[in-house]
Design goal:
The complex is a heterodimer. Chain A is mainly alpha-helical. Chain A has twelve helices and no strands. The longest helix of chain A has 39 residues. Chain A starts with a helix and ends in a 7-residue tail after the last helix. Chain B is mainly α. Chain B contains twelve helices and no strands. The chains are: A mainly alpha, B mainly alpha. At the A-B interface, helix 1, helix 6, helix 7, helix 10 and helix 11 of A face helix 4, helix 5, helix 10, helix 11 and helix 12 of B.
Chain lengths: 322, 302
């Protein structure tokens, strides 16, 4: 097993190299190229200075040499500095990351907490009213643009009813204590998490239902029923365990999706996370920050794929590690 | 489709004769059985007509300013209300739909062309070429789509074709995988061997003989791709990074409605453009689902 994990991890390396080549080529497309993203370039250098810097940074080297130098810097944590603030990109991102991770994590938990019971229940009662309604709702959920859903929630709960705050993560005008402080945090998170979780919940519910249905029609489930086991035990102990294998994979792969979705959520609700940082940087054409965030997101996608594969191997004894 | 001769001349055995049915006849017969897919198709047809000739019928100019009627809620004169300049929202939604739908269609067409070329080359050539191209597909799958689209549009400037290309660059991989898989199995078929025996070249075999049979799975993925493209373009415009005002798109109208909806409660400003996206995407998804069942004869009829 250990060697399987290592071998699978090694397979990710060529992928990471491929991704870094694409990112490097995009960096070449930025006005001013990689020089402008360096600390010394700053976008405002004179011609002579630029010339000197070109030499210093090796911009007259062949592209492959430049690529190796750039990729080496990325690996060592040298991600350049923000055009906008002059701060190192990596610090800027680390500041914003926890907020986005909190949103992503909460949305993931909410999606699982709804999708698992609803999907399983719908599958055990195929063609029932519950099944039709939940399937219909998940179709509707997948087609709902998250920004529209968020805007309508804001209209309803902030403008009309005045129940929930419309932006930010905490009340900036007033310091709350005790339970009020907890409610302050929670009330700021309800709508953003609902918006972020919507599509994931809808997709996951459909997936859970389909995986369960497939397993429930297998012979061994009929045997378990035939041998007089209570239905609950058949569904939970026999069917769900096997349906869980594909479910885990899909659920893990959903994490990067949620992370990307945070761009829109953070933008609607003015939440200072990484997604908002990305939009702000796009408006300011702050390429070093954009590429830094892109790198983090790509790493997350690769990591999620790796984890999904390894988990699949862990759960399913039929997978050989050879 | 080729006609099959079962031993004797079918004409001499009337019991065996069935009305000739083409692949498309067959597919349509199965598609018709899905009321939601049919409904989706009708909605899309209606939408296309409304977007194309609606603004002409209404005689409205999407940019016509009328301060006398500004910030009005839905009424008979303005079924979708007006904005802060008194512009009729219905006309703007219809005109915006042209842009949103044409960007999405163009992006899907470009992504199919790229995907089919890459998939056909990988599947037909095999070996090293196949390996290299499939690793390329893996790389593009791992790139965070929406982020890269935003970066590309920021780099290239927001215009019709830059947005189309940016979306297409990150949506061709699925088609490529499907086409490659079809080519891998089809190139071993007897009819391909027969074509080769009578002297057909590689290009002719790949394009004339295999391609038509490899396209069926692409149809479903292309249909669903339209929904994704609409959502990406709308997200881009909603974030203020896509088409710029006064050009109307559904996402762009939502972007400009934010303040009015949240702070002034003018819900119609955001509701209708978003509802258009929602209805279109829902209809496209139902049609795609119906097509999936219709085009795959192996699928058990449920």
């Amino acid at each position: 097993m250990g060697s399987y994990v290592i071998r699978r991890s090694l397979q990710a390396i060529p992928l990471l190299i491929g991704i870094s080549v694409v990112l490097f080529l995009m960096l070449q497309m930025t006005p001013g190229g990689p020089l402008a993203s360096s600390e010394a370039g700053g976008g405002r250098a004179t011609a002579e200075r630029t010339e000197r810097l070109r030499e210093e940074f090796g911009l007259d080297d062949p592209l492959p040499v430049q690529y190796v130098n750039w990729a080496g810097g990325m690996v060592r944590g040298d991600w350049g500095t923000s055009y906008n603030t002059g701060r190192p990109v990596i610090d800027t991102i680390v500041d914003r990351l926890p907020t986005t991770l909190l949103l992503t994590g909460l949305a993931f938990v909410v999606a699982l907490a709804i999708a698992l019971p609803v999907g399983i229940f719908a599958a055990t009662r195929q063609y029932s009213t519950f099944d039709y309604v939940s399937s219909g709702l998940s179709f509707v959920g997948v087609a709902t643009p998250s920004f529209w859903f968020g805007l309508m929630l804001l209209f309803l709960f902030s403008f009309e009813l005045g129940w929930l705050p419309s932006s930010g993560l905490e009340d900036l005008r007033e310091q709350h204590l005790g339970l009020a402080a907890v409610w302050d945090r929670v009330s700021h998170l309800i709508m953003p998490v609902a918006v972020l979780a919507l599509i994931a919940t809808a997709q996951l519910t459909r997936y859970v239902r389909d995986s369960m249905l497939e397993v429930l029609h297998q012979d061994y489930v009929r045997t378990a029923r035939g041998s007089g086991l209570p239905e609950r035990s058949v569904v939970v102990r026999h069917a769900f365990r096997n349906a869980a294998i594909p479910m885990v994979t899909i659920a893990v792969l959903m994490i990067p999706e949620l992370f990307l979705g945070a761009v829109i959520t953070e933008s609607i609700f003015a939440i200072p996370g990484m997604g908002r940082l990305f939009i702000e940087s796009a408006e300011l054409r702050d390429y070093p920050v954009l590429l830094g965030i892109l790198t983090i997101a790509a790493l997350l996608v690769v990591l999620a794929n790796l984890v999904a594969d390894v988990l699949y191997g862990l759960i399913d004894p039929r997978i050989s590690y050879g | 489709m080729a006609s099959h001769t079962l031993g004797a001349d079918p004409a001499s055995e009337p019991a065996l004769r069935a009305p000739a049915r083409s692949l498309w006849n067959d597919a349509w017969r199965r598609f018709r059985r899905h009321p939601l897919a049919l409904g989706g198709l009708a909605v899309l047809g209606l939408l296309a007509v409304a977007v194309l000739i609606g603004p002409l019928l209404l005689g409205g100019d999407p940019d016509a300013i009328d301060f006398g009627a500004k910030d009005a809620g839905p009424s008979l004169a303005h079924p979708m209300g007006t904005d802060e300049l008194g512009r009729d929202q219905l006309v703007r939604v219809l005109v915006g739909g042209r842009l949103t739908l044409s960007v999405a269609s163009a992006a899907v067409i470009v992504s199919i062309v790229v995907g089919v070329l890459v998939g056909a080359l990988a599947g037909y050539a095999g070996g090293f070429v196949d390996n290299a191209l499939m690793r390329l597909v893996d790389v593009f799958y791992s790139l965070p789509g929406l982020f890269v689209v935003i970066l590309l549009v920021t780099l290239l400037g927001a215009g019709f074709w830059t947005i189309v290309i940016a979306i297409a660059v990150f949506s061709w991989m699925n088609t490529a995988r499907l086409v490659r898989a079809s080519y891998l199995s089809l190139k071993e078929k007897e009819y391909v061997e027969a074509a080769r025996t009578i002297g057909a070249g590689d290009v002719r075999i790949a394009l004339r003989h295999i391609l038509p049979n490899a396209l069926t799975p692409v149809i479903v993925s292309a249909t669903l791709g339209i929904a994704t493209a609409i959502l990406i373009e709308s997200a881009l415009s909603f974030l203020g990074l896509g088409f710029q005002p006064p050009q109307a798109t559904w996402g762009g109208m939502l972007n400009q409605s934010q303040d009015a909806v949240i702070n002034e409660g003018h819900w119609w400003r955001g509701f209708f453009p978003g509802a258009m996206i929602f209805v279109t995407v829902l209809a496209v998804n139902y049609v795609g689902d119906g097509l999936r069942d219709a085009l795959d004869p192996r699928r058990v009829e449920r």
